[in-house]
């Protein structure tokens, strides 16, 4: 069985592969894409998970804008840094916005990634 440290390291490596497309840890939508277009260089993401939290996440109901519901979630917190693939230059870091960011929310019931979580308790 993996230790918690080994598990978070593997999860960080996996998220790094996905996040160069998904703006992980950065507030403005499309920021990574904008940098790629301006720089003309593919960006790679290095993720470091610093904590795992368990709690309730408030999510919007799909069929009603005025209705929310609570679901059990795991939240992965940490940092994400975006480097140029060829140059190795650090272009973006989630620490420019917060020391640690909520990187991804995972449903505790089914393990699915949640994109519509509004807050956690």
Structure report:
This protein is an alpha+beta fold and 121 residues long. The chain has one domain (4-120). The chain is built from 2 helices and 6 strands; from the N terminus they run H-H-E-E-E-E-E-E. Strands 1, 2, 3, 4, 5 and 6 form a 6-stranded antiparallel β-sheet that branches. The model has no long low-confidence stretch (mean pLDDT 78).
In short:
The protein has about 120 residues and is of the alpha+beta class.
End-to-end distance:
30 Å
Proportion in helices:
10-25%
Taking all residues together, what is the mean pLDDT?
Answer: 78
Largest sheet: 6 strands, antiparallel
What is the CA-based Rg, rounded? 16 Å
Strand content: 35-45%
Order of helices and strands: HHEEEEEE
């Amino acid at each position: 069985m993996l230790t918690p440290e080994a598990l978070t390291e593997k999860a960080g490596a996996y998220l790094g592969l996905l996040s160069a497309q998904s703006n992980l840890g950065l507030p403005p939508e499309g920021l990574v894409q904008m940098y790629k277009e301006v720089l003309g260089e593919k960006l790679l993401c290095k993720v470091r998970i610093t904590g795992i939290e368990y709690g309730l996440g408030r999510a919007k109901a799909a069929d009603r804008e005025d209705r929310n519901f609570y679901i059990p979630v795991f939240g992965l917190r940490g940092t994400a840094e975006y480097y140029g693939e060829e140059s190795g230059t650090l272009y973006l870091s989630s620490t420019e916005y917060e020391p640690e960011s909520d990187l991804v929310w995972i449903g505790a019931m089914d393990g699915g990634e949640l994109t519509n979580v509004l807050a956690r308790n």
